[in-house]
Write a structure and sequence with these properties.
Shape: globular
Low-confidence stretches: 1-43, 518-525
Number of strands: 22
Helix content: 25-40%
Largest sheet: 9 strands, mixed
């Protein structure tokens, strides 16, 4: 940035002088916090009736509750609430048909079932079943039809990394508009997206939908269901290569979101990622780019810095902002959310206040403190880019003790898995050799390549460990954490490496008991 420019004074290159999609109001969110509760709208207002559900899914009704109001939709019989429509899906271990009677007795007014479902028993004739060729497809059709009745803005979010964090940021930023509905957990596939859409109703102020993929064509179908008015792409990296081939394949799949936006919609693109920035040529929507450091972007930030409580940064012309979360990479997620907010009439003061309220989803740089030891659980997902960001954050983090990396397998990397794990090991080893990481513990069969890379790089063997599985790592921990240590646990979800947190907790508690046993020692914990 030229010396004469200030992050506080540089305006947008293309001022957002269009009318906001929704006018900002002074009231706060009238519903539960985004993502809170089950998969139902907060107010449980009627969405449609059973007969309308049958029409939308081209199904045949059996039973007497055809005029009953449907107030929610669920695929889990354990979460049924009165007024729900239960969708009976086939599963690998059990078929949803086995749970229909229980769901109806728990208060569901109807169930979507396959044609082979037996007749309702006499005590459930007051309820109904809707027979459809495919309950999974019917769920998508039901959501797509419901989406056409909504008048609120719909924000779609995709990318290789940061989808859930960005979704949380966007939902928080839009809260001044009123009730915001967002995807819960990581409901971002052909089941999760329809369920999210079906939580919105006429009173919803904004709908925020996360969109994931593991194979070609999946995001395009999700876009057809949710019909977003604004699309956000966070980044493109080596993720789901088993289904998408390479980074170009990932980019083509992610670009399905901006390609599917309407001409009066908005594509908000991470301008720091060349593949994402290139998607501007593939959309008919208005385009905004974001950047951490490049003042030529539409929405940019500068002077990002870590603090003891989170991250501070300057937002172009809007003042200094604070995020109470770790990870400088989250500034880029915040910029995407800020763009969305500005387009919907959110002011700089509202942005500043809402950013202070953001929280990361579980297992995304989730911070646990155990007797003076800090654990960072970033193990909902992992690919080379997200792992590198996590390692950089750990290496830069202040610690009174050691910085310990616990790195598990990155899954679904296909034929390039060994090479990518080896490169990840080299990256971690560089930090260890320069004194920014103090112990590297690799877990999993794929991560053996990372361990070998660290050995070949010359890392002291006393600062290295490897275990072929999480169970074996838990049985024979390679490191015992003590007060002041900071440990990052990073791996793909399938590894469930967060189980090691309990092992590390137990080791820390045992160390605390040992400290308290000696003369003059102080018990900690």
């Amino acid at each position: 940035m030229p010396p004469s420019e200030s992050p506080l004074s540089k305006p947008l290159n293309r001022p957002l002088n269009r009318t906001p999609l929704v006018e900002s109001s002074s009231h706060g969110s009238r519903g539960a916090a985004p993502g809170a509760g089950a998969l139902h709208g907060a107010a449980r207002r009627p969405l449609f009736d059973v007969a309308e559900a049958a029409r939308r899914t081209r199904g045949d009704i059996e039973g007497l509750s055809r005029n009953a109001a449907v107030r929610g939709v669920t695929i889990d019989s354990r979460e049924v609430a009165p007024g729900d429509l239960f969708v009976a899906l086939p599963g690998s271990k059990a078929h949803g048909h086995e749970f229909v009677a229980g769901a109806l007795r728990a208060g569901a007014v109807a169930a979507l079932v396959e044609p082979t479902f037996p007749p309702l028993p006499a005590d459930l004739e007051a309820r109904a079943v809707i027979r459809v060729a495919s309950p999974r497809r019917a769920l998508a059709d039901l959501a797509a039809a419901h989406r056409r009745t909504l008048r609120c803005p719909v924000v779609g979010i995709t990318g290789s990394n940061g989808k859930s964090s960005t979704r949380e940021f966007v939902a928080r930023v839009l809260e001044p508009l009123g009730d915001v509905v967002q995807s819960v957990k990581s409901y971002n596939n052909d089941l999760g997206v329809p369920l999210t859409v079906l939580r919105a109703d006429a009173e919803t102020a904004a709908l925020v939908v996360e969109m994931g993929t593991s194979g070609p064509g999946e995001i395009a179908r999700l876009v057809e269901i949710a019909r977003p008015t604004l699309g956000i792409v966070t980044n493109v990296s080596a993720a789901h290569l088993q289904g998408l081939g390479d980074e170009d394949g990932v980019a083509h799949e992610k670009a399905s979101l901006p390609r599917g936006l309407p001409s009066d919609g908005f594509a908000v693109l991470n301008g720091d990622d060349p593949r994402v920035a290139g998607m501007a040529r593939q959309t008919q929507a208005h385009v905004l780019t974001t950047s951490l450091g490049n003042w030529r972007a539409d929405v940019w930030a500068a002077d990002a810095r870590r603090t003891a409580r989170g991250i501070e940064f300057f937002l172009f012309g809007k003042g200094r902002m604070f995020l109470p979360v770790p990870g400088l990479h989250n500034v880029r997620n915040a910029l995407l959310a800020a763009s969305c907010g500005l387009l919907h009439g959110i002011t700089a003061d509202q942005l500043r206040a809402q950013f202070r309220l953001v929280r990361l989803p579980a297992l995304r740089m989730q911070r646990l403190t155990i007797g003076g030891t800090t654990l960072l659980l970033d193990c909902y997902n992992a690919n080379p880019a997200s792992l590198e960001a996590g390692v950089e954050e750990l290496a830069a983090r202040p610690a009174r003790g050691r910085r310990v990396l616990v790195q598990g397998d990155m899954l679904e990397l296909g034929a390039r898995s060994a090479d990518l794990h080896y490169a990840a090991g080299r990256h971690a080893a560089l930090h260890a050799l320069e004194g920014r990481l103090d112990f590297l513990w690799f877990v999993g069969q794929e991560s053996r390549a990372a361990y070998d890379a660290a050995v070949e790089s010359g890392v002291d063997p006393a600062k290295l460990g490897w275990a072929p599985s999480v169970d074996e790592a838990a049985a024979k921990p390679a490191v015992t954490l003590v007060r002041g240590d900071v440990a990052l646990l990073k791996a793909s979800r399938g590894m469930r490496i967060e189980r090691l947190a309990e092992t590390l907790r137990a080791a820390r508690e045992q160390e605390a008991r040992n400290d308290g046993a000696g003369p003059g020692s102080r018990r900690v914990g």
